[in-house]
Design goal:
By secondary structure, the protein is an all-beta fold. 0% of the residues lie in helices and 56% in strands.
Length: 114
């Protein structure tokens, strides 16, 4: 299983980015998909998750600004990020949880300038 992320970059505060995560070697339809982030010197934290039935949950700090979604036909997970803040700066990781297995992407850097 391989997860390939893209879409990170440098953006000014108030801007938007959309992260993508393409899954190879597994079917996302029955999986829990999620995005995590890790800022320098901090632990990796959950940003957003979506169960196979569509139920989502978000970190309080991103509610109303970020949206997780998936396209099962493309085996792709997205994270739409709006109204970005400097404190959103981190490496963002895609995660797929299927049965008892966890898979991780390599991470994509998001930097928000003030």
């Amino acid at each position: 299983v391989q997860l390939v992320e893209s879409g990170g970059g440098l953006v000014q505060a108030g801007g938007s980015l959309r992260l993508s995560c393409v899954a190879f070697g597994t079917d996302l339809r029955s999986a829990i998909v999620a995005w995590y982030r890790q800022a320098p010197g901090k632990q990796r934290d959950l940003v957003a998750a979506e169960r196979s039935g569509g139920t989502t949950n978000y970190a309080d700090s991103v509610k109303g600004r970020f949206t997780i979604s998936r396209d099962n036909a493309k085996n792709t997970v997205y994270l739409e990020m709006n109204n970005l803040k400097p404190e959103d700066t981190a490496i963002y990781y895609c995660n797929v949880h299927f049965l008892i297995m966890d898979y991780w992407g390599q991470g994509t850097q998001v930097t928000v300038s003030s």
